[in-house]
């Protein structure tokens, strides 16, 4: 118990003093998470919108597959991407393994289903009358789609926030594809795992506090946007 | 003529919801589309609003057959606007709701502002221009939805039950707006309603739908009944187990058959209970409503089921019924039509 309390007090000191190593680790985490969320949003939002708005055979099956992919373990993605970017993989010559780009690739694969599935849910919740109203006011297909997208905006932002929460706290991909290289690919979660292995808890607890703070902030944002969806 | 409908059929699943052989709608007139729930009113309105395609048949709009390609429909939809029974406003300001259709029509900003102000004035909602649309009441939402449609200066204005979900004050405002836009802007108006008296007050023409078909009646006095033979061997129609009406003739009915029955309100005779009874189909009831209408008087009677009769003003003055009084009705067989 003393160990935990001592570590916690020292960790607070690290957070308050903005320890250089801790700030660097947080910087790497935020950078890869923001880039992967942005890239995945560019793919996931149009994908989810297309699935929800479109009328095509196999739509229900596609949504089921998408929902199934929400449970994809990070280590499976890590292994899968590793097979492509390791020296013997087809993208081996690009030297991506143990880089931030590798982490980003893995994380994008991880959260595309999250963003797409949540976008499908957000669009599906939009009242059919919006579509009909837009059409009777003279809107073409694209303008009608834009109306539906606009009405679903809070739900879509909530999807992106949820996806960011997922990548900032994942460890499997960052560890397997980033390699936990100090100052380069060491993220909050991989650093915490390393510090635990070393039996040094202060930095791990400090990062844990920051991570929890970030997750709390993300959840506040998520619930704010979800609340806006429900009040529509 | 603005619409000509020929052999229109609409089927959902295995159910035929519309089957209209012929319907013509004149331009610059107000039409009321009457019918019970499930009669096909909204489906017909959606088809005329080009939001649904018929299963079969032809729709002519301004003497041209409607082409159901998306680009052709989009061009036509710029002339026809439909306001649904429970209209929905975009989650933005009232102003931006009205601006949506105008932007699509590439109307410049200055003109847009002028049209929006004018349209909101017409429905008495100018002061709500910058209000968030989702905070409006049901009646205000309906009025803004009408303004949003009218801002587009349509040739045809279709309105599904415009007054069904608003209070009496808003009902009167909406009726006035519909009349005014027809008179001042020469917009053809077609609205659905359950309310016969509202249709009579507002519309120049009435279309009545019953189970997807046009019926040449005035909507009321249409009942579901059972055609059967009475104990004396005469054919009779039983309506809701409350009215047993002899329909005359010697038609042999082998087994009871469900039918729709129309009782002509002009052929029903109303008498004081003290007067001599008529020969056939004598009923007694209580007067629940009296309405003066186009030189005649409509008396609605609760005789177990609600039945309306239409009498001349002279006859009404002779019998002088008041609401709440007991009245005796006689329904001659020739007033009963199996439809």
What does this structure look like?
The complex is a heterodimer of chains A (232) and B (339). Chain A is built from eleven helices and no strands. With 232 residues, chain A is mainly alpha-helical. Chain A has one domain: MetI-like fold, CATH 1.10.3720.10. In chain A, α2 crosses α5. The longest helix of chain A has 34 residues. In chain B, α3 packs parallel to α5, α4 packs across α5 and α5 packs parallel to α6. Chain B is α+β, with helices and mostly antiparallel strands and 339 residues long. The mean pLDDT of chain B is 87. In chain B, the strands form four sheets. In chain B, strands 6-7-8-3-9-10 form a six-stranded mixed beta sheet, sandwiched between helices. Chain B has a five-stranded antiparallel beta sheet with strand order 13-12-11-14-20, with no helix packed on it. In chain B, strands 15-19-16-17-18 form a five-stranded antiparallel beta sheet. Chain B has two domains: 212 residues, Rossmann fold, CATH 3.40.50; 117 residues, OB fold (Dihydrolipoamide Acetyltransferase, E2P) (Beta Barrel).
Percent helix of chain B, as a range, is 25-40%
Residue-averaged pLDDT of chain A, rounded? 90
> Which parts of chain B are unreliable, with pLDDT below 50 for 5 consecutive residues or more?
none
**Which H/E pattern describes the elements of chain B?**
EEEHEEHEHHHEHEHEEEEEEEEEEHEE
CATH class term of chain A = Mainly Alpha
N-end to C-end Cα span of chain B: 29 Å
């Amino acid at each position: 118990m003393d160990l935990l309390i001592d570590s916690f007090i020292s960790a607070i000191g690290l957070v308050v003093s903005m320890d250089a190593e801790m700030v660097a680790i947080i910087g790497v985490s935020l950078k890869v998470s923001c880039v992967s969320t942005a890239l995945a949003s560019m793919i996931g939002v149009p994908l989810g919108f297309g699935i929800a708005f479109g009328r095509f055979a196999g739509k229900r099956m596609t949504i089921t597959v998408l929902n199934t992919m929400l449970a994809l373990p990070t280590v499976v993605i890590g292994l899968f991407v590793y097979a492509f970017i390791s020296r013997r993989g087809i993208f081996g010559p690009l030297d991506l393994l143990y880089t931030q780009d590798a982490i980003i690739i893995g994380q994008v694969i991880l959260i595309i289903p999250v963003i797409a599935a949540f976008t499908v849910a957000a669009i599906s919740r939009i009242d059919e009358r919006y579509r009909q109203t837009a059409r009777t006011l003279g809107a073409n297909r694209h303008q009608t789609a834009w109306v539906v997208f606009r009405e679903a905006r809070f739900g879509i932002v909530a999807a992106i926030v949820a996806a960011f929460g997922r990548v900032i706290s994942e460890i499997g991909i960052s560890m397997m594809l980033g390699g936990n290289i100090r100052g380069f690919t060491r993220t909050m979660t991989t650093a915490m795992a390393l510090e635990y292995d070393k039996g040094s808890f202060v930095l791990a607890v400090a990062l844990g506090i920051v991570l929890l703070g970030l997750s709390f902030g993300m959840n506040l944002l998520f619930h704010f946007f979800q609340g806006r969806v429900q009040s529509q | 003529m603005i619409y000509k409908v020929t052999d229109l059929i609409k089927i959902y699943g295995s159910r035929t919801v519309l089957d209209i052989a012929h319907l013509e709608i004149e331009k610059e007139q107000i039409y009321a589309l009457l019918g019970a729930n499930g009669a096909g009113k909204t489906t017909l309105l959606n088809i005329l609003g080009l939001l649904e395609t018929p299963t079969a048949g032809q729709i002519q709009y301004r003497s041209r057959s409607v082409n159901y390609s998306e680009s052709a429909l989009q061009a036509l939809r710029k002339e026809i606007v439909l306001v649904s029974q429970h209209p929905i406003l975009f989650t933005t300001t009232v102003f931006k709701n009205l601006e949506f259709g105008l932007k699509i029509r590439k109307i410049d900003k200055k003109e847009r502002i002028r049209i929006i102000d004018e349209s909101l004035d017409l429905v008495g909602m100018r002061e709500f221009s910058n209000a968030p649309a989702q905070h409006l009441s049901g009646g205000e939402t309906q009025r803004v939805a009408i303004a949003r449609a009218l801002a587009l200066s349509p040739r045809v204005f279709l309105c599904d039950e415009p007054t069904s979900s608003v209070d009496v004050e808003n009902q009167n405002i909406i009726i006035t707006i519909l009349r005014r836009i027809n008179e001042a802007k020469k917009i053809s108006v077609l609205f659905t309603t359950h309310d016969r008296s509202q249709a009579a007050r507002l519309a120049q023409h009435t279309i009545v739908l019953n189970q997807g078909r046009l019926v040449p009646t005035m909507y009321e006095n249409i009942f579901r009944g059972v055609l059967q033979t009475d104990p004396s061997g005469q054919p009779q129609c039983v309506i809701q187990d409350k009215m047993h009406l002899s329909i005359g003739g010697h038609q042999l009915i082998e087994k009871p058959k469900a039918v729709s029955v129309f009782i002509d309100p002009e052929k029903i005779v109303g008498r004081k209970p003290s007067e001599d009874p008529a020969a056939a189909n004598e009923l007694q009831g209580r007067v629940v409503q009296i309405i003066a209408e186009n030189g005649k008087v409509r008396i609605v009677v609760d005789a177990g089921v609600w039945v309306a009769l239409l009498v001349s003003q002279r006859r009404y003055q002779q019998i002088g019924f008041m609401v709440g009084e007991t009245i005796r009705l006689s329904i001659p067989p020739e007033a009963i039509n199996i439809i």
